[in-house]
Amino acid sequence: MSKKVCGTNYPLSICFIVVNEFCERFSYYGMKALLTLYFLTYLHWDKDLSTAIYHAFSSLCYFTPILGAIIADSWLGKYKTIIYLSIVYVIGHVVKSVGAIPTVGNTDVHIALSMVGLILIAFGTGGIKPCVAAFGGDQFDEEHTSERQKFFSIFYMSINAGSLLSTVITPILRSDVQCFGGDCYALAFGVPAALMIVALVVFISGSSLYKRSPPEGNILLEVCSCIGFAIRNRWQRAKYDPPRKHWLDWAEEKYSKRLIQEIKMVLRVLVLYIPLPMFWALFDQQGSRWTIQAARMNMAFGNSFSIKPDQMQMLNALLILVFVPIFDLIIYPLVGFCRINITPLRKMAAGMIFAALAFGAATLVEVNVVKTVVDPAPEGSYLMQVYNLAGGNVTVKIPGSGLFPEQIPHLQDPPEYVTLPVVGSGQGQTIDVTLNGKTSEFQYPVEQQKAYSIILYSDTGAVKCELAEDFITKNQTGDPFLRFFNTLPESINITVGDLVFTAPSGLMSPTQPVDRGEYSNVNCSLQACSNLNLGLLDFGGSYTFVLMEESGTIVPYKMEDVKANDVHIAWQIPQYALITMGEVLFSITGLEFSYSQAPANMKSVLQGGWLLTVAFGNVIVLIVAEGAGLEQWKEFLLFACLLLGVFIIFSIMAHFYTYVDPEQLDKVYMMNSSKEEDDHDDKKNKKSNDIHLVKAGQGTRL
């Protein structure tokens, strides 16, 4: 007799399973929340490749559960499958963490370790996905059905708790802890690795308490064999035998009529699954495109608190815990009170509408976000802006260009970059500067598709012209960029936070990212420039400070090369709320529908089919990200329109779908089969019924 939690009918073994699931989900979502920024800032991939690899990994995570289910049901059993694949999982996390250590090899080594780690993690998390929840259900005695159902509610809460906490904590470890001179991805990936080790140790610790069921054969393999036999048999005998009512009926020579009828029911549901990947194509972009969008927004809440771009994903886990009871206790009863028939398929269709609206909201946000982004110059051209620090108004003329017809005032920020053609090989570009009636000619080298600042300043009465190449790409993490141009006769060091900027005389310091904040008391290596006031360095901005000496004091003149993000990250809340409403209507309802429309011993087949829709949804994003080449707002709008099109197709399919009651099928076959055979089938499938019934309400966090 298994040990119980004191005074209850709950097996003590489930405590180990719930803790294991919490730690495993913490490790998975904590690692996954960082992936997009890791690809962008550490591996230095562009946003399209980063998005493609992110969704390739997500897709693999939902293809591998089929493999895990086959291994568990046909070979090792659930317990050993969880143990062995968790070891693979741990190895993947460790390899991934080592790949994030800058001192371990070069970029190629980091990429190789990262990809190997992600593949191992995908096989680990996907392989144990279909096993852990079912193994927990196995721990209960047959008569404790209500306790088993409550266990799955606790199990699902542990999933969301792990997801919520990890997406808050790991971005803080990434950005607030500095190691190897930058964001500490090694630590941020290392903590999820440690949690996965804890998950494995906890699970093994409960070994003596577990009730283990031996492998009973995989129904998925039997279904595939039956379908394959029917196709072959029809192909070989169609010319000689009379036609049959359904193509699956060609399998009657080898398989029972009951199995064939059950497969027909399953296939009717799987046909409805065909349009579903498009929903997941939108849903899973929370960790990729939406994170990239968040990094180009203002993330400050007041002066003392700001959020990380990769922390916004925690809104989905938080909101689903809020929305599920609201829908179950308020919205659904109100709709029913209005005598509106809300069938499962109608709920799923409504979920698609909410997801499309979410991407409509994301499109509106993106249109405003890109207003602070500087587009690179087209081929054969370059960008240029002029800063006048020469002590008076200047006239600037560029031969062959009608730009700057008016005088440029002293200390006025240029409104925006201008685009100029590269002359010849790019050498000897000419600019004429007139100050106080005296004209000076300067030449400077430029390259196409780059951006430059021309800094005019006065030195002993003469105007001087310096060319500086600008870094116009916004920081992928959202932090501002900073640099200093030194007009002084000697080199200078400026300490900003934990960073030291070195600006030689007449030259620019290297550009470095700094934390967003108010810098009113910055020190430098010269006594004349102590306590420099740099003001607010805001999210997404790129700043140049020109250091000039005036009346014995060094003054920093602030120039904003790239404007700071002016769209607040709170504008992402509506799109997260809409996508989460869509998840509640689509995902949870879809699993409940799948359960209700399939025979008891086919639940695992539909569960596998459902997970494959998630996998193919990520494949769609991968293809669009790499192949479409659209501006981001156009891509968001494309996805919204595609889902609306899929909504129409799915609604038509749903209109012609006839709901069935698998229990009626069971009754028919019970009348035509011996009592002994039915008793055996009932006993075999009863536990599967209970497990899959409650799993149907677990959403997508599995």
From TrEMBL:
Gene Ontology molecular function, alphabetical: dipeptide transmembrane transporter activity; symporter activity
Any one GO CC term of the record: membrane
UniProt keyword annotation of Membrane present: yes
InterPro entries linked: MFS_trans_sf, POT_fam, PTR2_symporter_CS, SLC15A2
Residue stretches of biased makeup (Basic and acidic residues): 676-693
GO biological process: protein transport; response to yeast
Main location: membrane
Protein's cellular compartments: Membrane
Domain of life: Eukaryota
Keywords: Membrane, Peptide transport, Protein transport, Symport, Transmembrane, Transmembrane helix, Transport
Residue segments, region Disordered: 676-702
Residues passing through the membrane, by range: 26-45, 51-71, 83-105, 111-132, 153-173, 185-204, 265-283, 314-335, 347-365, 605-624, 636-660
Signal peptide start-end: none
One family name in Pfam for this protein: PTR2
Bilayer topology annotation: Multi-pass membrane protein
Protein family (similarity comment): Belongs to the major facilitator superfamily. Proton-dependent oligopeptide transporter (POT/PTR) (TC 2.A.17) family.
Protein name as it appears in the record: Solute carrier family 15 member 2
